[in-house]
């Protein structure tokens, strides 16, 4: 499955790109699986996702828990806790 | 009855309170209370040169609208606006504006307060510090106190 | 340290929020939150033509200042303004403005809310109704709910 | 003792004057005594002060209770509960 990933704040800085389209293996079912998969893709991903428990996910621009299935997602946002306002 | 739609904007430029309030109140005679919240950039005792605000375009507006609609329903608001800036913002400049209009004062206070508490913890914005010594500081860390402020609205 | 003095005014004419806020925030970089409360005249479903606001000159300003100073001390405010109009006020027009500035948002919300709750019950102003049918209605009665709103700040 | 009385809202309307200077007998010690004394001055005062428990008093422009002594007051405000804001 092909999906667009978008990164923000220090996740974006550490992965060193704002977005990319990647091919996800079928063994990746949930958001948590996706984070673990990304960590295998290189040092920069490992640095960004070192503490996956603090990472927030959004599927198609809506917040989701890490155990949410990602099947059918067009766009997955990966970012740190929000600090707006 | 058509549900009230909030005014939501994410923009680079500053906002003017009097203009924003007029958008909610002009021509109306049923509004008895308007509460505005303006969040500004502080210089942190002189150590901060600017904040850089990053956001998730599209999702930022969608989350702000979702929060605003919760507030309208919960507090029977007669008007609600939320405007959030992005880009580099200097100390003393505005960052965010929330306006809640209602018949009575407590609903307007609660509406604006509720929107701010959820916006802080759920709207996809991030702040990076540019320090007065010329270096780029770290990304601002999320505060437990902000989660606690949000959670007070979730009690039964 | 010199204690912060609030801006207090009782006046016939309207006020402009942007101008009033600028009086508190201009040139400052330590303010992170500004909350404004504006109270407006409602038409009560079309039955009201105007409110006539009477006040006790001198004592009105003194009471507003006393309440404002309590709020500044209690919530460590960095700025506070309270402006109250008098005379005949039509539906849709402003009656009262309170602005509280602070480092952080909850202090600004609480400061403005506190001032409004005490102002309602302690500042010497009275409202008389002028009805749409041409008659002069009665003086607005004080509400128990306003006393209760004030009393929530007095709990230990 | 001579003192200036100022009236507001429906107290002013019923007494039909905004203020007056009156001479208070020595038997009048507290705010409550003053209200009872005023009620003896005529119908209009009786109408205004019919329910003294709702009436608010201010001595020299500061709120006081009904049992406050009025000795030394320059100005006493007499008015209904406030309804500003």
From TrEMBL, chains A, D:
Pfam family, one: ThiS
InterPro entries: Beta-grasp_dom_sf, Mopterin_synth/thiamin_S_b, ThiS/MoaD-like
Superkingdom to which the source organism belongs: Bacteria
Protein known as: Molybdopterin converting factor subunit 1
Gene: moaD
NCBIfam families hit by this protein: moaD
Automatic annotation (TrEMBL), chains B, C:
Membrane-crossing segments per the record: none
Enzyme class per UniProt: transferase
Pathway(s): Cofactor biosynthesis; molybdopterin biosynthesis
EC number(s) given by UniProt: 2.8.1.12
Catalytic activity: 2 [molybdopterin-synthase sulfur-carrier protein]-C-terminal-Gly-aminoethanethioate + cyclic pyranopterin phosphate + H2O = molybdopterin + 2 [molybdopterin-synthase sulfur-carrier protein]-C-terminal Gly-Gly + 2 H(+)
Keywords: Molybdenum cofactor biosynthesis
Domain of life: Bacteria
Function: Converts molybdopterin precursor Z into molybdopterin. This requires the incorporation of two sulfur atoms into precursor Z to generate a dithiolene group. The sulfur is provided by MoaD.
Subunit (UniProt): Heterotetramer of 2 MoaD subunits and 2 MoaE subunits. Also stable as homodimer. The enzyme changes between these two forms during catalysis.
Similarity section: Belongs to the MoaE family.
Protein name: Molybdopterin synthase catalytic subunit
Organism: Rhizobium lemnae
Highest classification ranks of the organism: Bacteria, Pseudomonadati, Pseudomonadota, Alphaproteobacteria, Hyphomicrobiales
């Amino acid at each position: 499955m092909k999906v667009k990933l978008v990164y923000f704040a220090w996740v974006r800085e550490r992965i060193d790109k704002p977005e990319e389209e990647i091919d996800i293996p079928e063994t990746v079912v949930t958001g948590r699986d996706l984070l673990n998969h990304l960590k295998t893709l290189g040092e920069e991903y490992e640095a960004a996702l070192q503490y996956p428990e603090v990472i927030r996910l959004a599927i198609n621009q809506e917040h989701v828990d890490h155990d949410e299935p990602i099947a059918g997602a067009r766009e997955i946002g990966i970012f740190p806790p929000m600090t707006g306002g | 009855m058509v549900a009230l739609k909030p005014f939501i904007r994410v923009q680079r430029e500053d906002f003017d309170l009097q203009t924003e309030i007029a958008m909610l109140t002009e021509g109306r005679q049923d509004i008895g209370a308007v509460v505005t919240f303006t969040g500004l950039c502080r210089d942190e005792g002189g150590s901060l040169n600017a904040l850089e605000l990053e956001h998730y375009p599209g999702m930022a507006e969608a989350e702000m609208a979702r929060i605003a609609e919760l507030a309208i329903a919960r507090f029977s608001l007669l008007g609600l606006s939320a405007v959030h800036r992005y880009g580099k913002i200097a100390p003393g400049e505005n960052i965010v504006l929330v306006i809640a209009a209602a018949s009575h004062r407590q609903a307007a206070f609660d509406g604006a307060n509720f929107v701010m508490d959820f916006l802080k913890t759920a709207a996809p914005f991030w702040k990076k510090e540019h320090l007065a010594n010329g270096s780029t500081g770290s990304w601002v860390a999320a505060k437990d106190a902000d989660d606690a402020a949000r959670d007070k609205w979730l009690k039964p």
